Amino acid sequence: MEIKKHGLSPEVGTYNRLFFTCAKQLKIAQAEEWFNMMLDEGLKPDAYSYNSLISIYGKAGQVESAESYFNQMRLSGVNPTAITYSAMMSAYAQAGDVEGAELCMDEMREAKLELSVQICGALLNACAKACDGERAERWLHEMRRDGVRMNEKIFTSAMDAWANKGEIEGMERIFRLMQASNVKPDAMTICVLIKGCKRARIDSKVDLVAHAEHYLCRIIDRDVTPDVYVLNSMIDLCRLHRRHTVAFIWLRKMRKLGIRPNKFTVKIMEGWREMSGERAAILKELRERGEVRAHDTRRRRVGGHGRSKR
């Protein structure tokens, strides 16, 4: 360390600034080295020190290491803060560990720490990762009773737990609650709603394409501009159900809205054998406009067999 070369002793704040840099760049080994050096210097890590290490390991998906520092923090007499729990819950959410996230929530309540939108969202994200819609919906109602400020991210995360299972009824129930709460949906909300339709049983009696169109039109009517990811999801749903005419309608709307198609849009279009004439014409037009490069539309074979000769 440069400061030690000049005969100076680094303080806790010095190491914390190093942890901050490591957290931004996700340098786990470097952070671990600084932490051990800090202990060797006889310095006592504070809440910021532990929070940084917990956050780094959480982002890297190493939940056990994050838990280890969380436990070490408490054993050393440093009280966890709301930021500590937020970092731990984000780690649990990434792993889909609902029980771990719930334990953090219970401890926060017991310590009377503020339940921020980010913390509540992390718990709901854990439920979504675990495809546990029942739990997500139960926690959503508890959060409302606790006076947590509801926003579009909270409702969307709860919907996602149902959407991941393709459970349309649960997803719609939360969407209606979102509207009744006067919370405006965003592009991510409609992505989740369409995803739910894509994952629902294809033999469902519900017209899933019409269902998704209904969501999308309602959100557009509320002045929410869809992005390329939303419209790609809608077009891909049409592809799954072989509703190519509807898919082209949304493709045209995409271009009318000034939204530039991307490689995934082209990949979807390449599978439309039933409308090859119009498909080829649109792909040609996209190339001529420079919206899609020519090589983006070529099929590539992966592997050592069947490579086309140049």
TrEMBL record:
Ranges occupied by PPR repeats: 11-45, 46-80, 81-115, 116-150, 151-185, 227-261
Q: Which residues form the PROP1-like PPR domain?
A: 17-162
- Transmembrane stretches in the record are none
Keywords on record: Repeat
The cross-references to InterPro entries, in alphabetical order and at most eight, read: PPR_rpt, PROP1-like_PPR_dom, TPR-like_helical_dom_sf
Q: Which domain of life is it from?
A: Eukaryota
The name on file for this protein is: PROP1-like PPR domain-containing protein
The organism is Lotharella oceanica
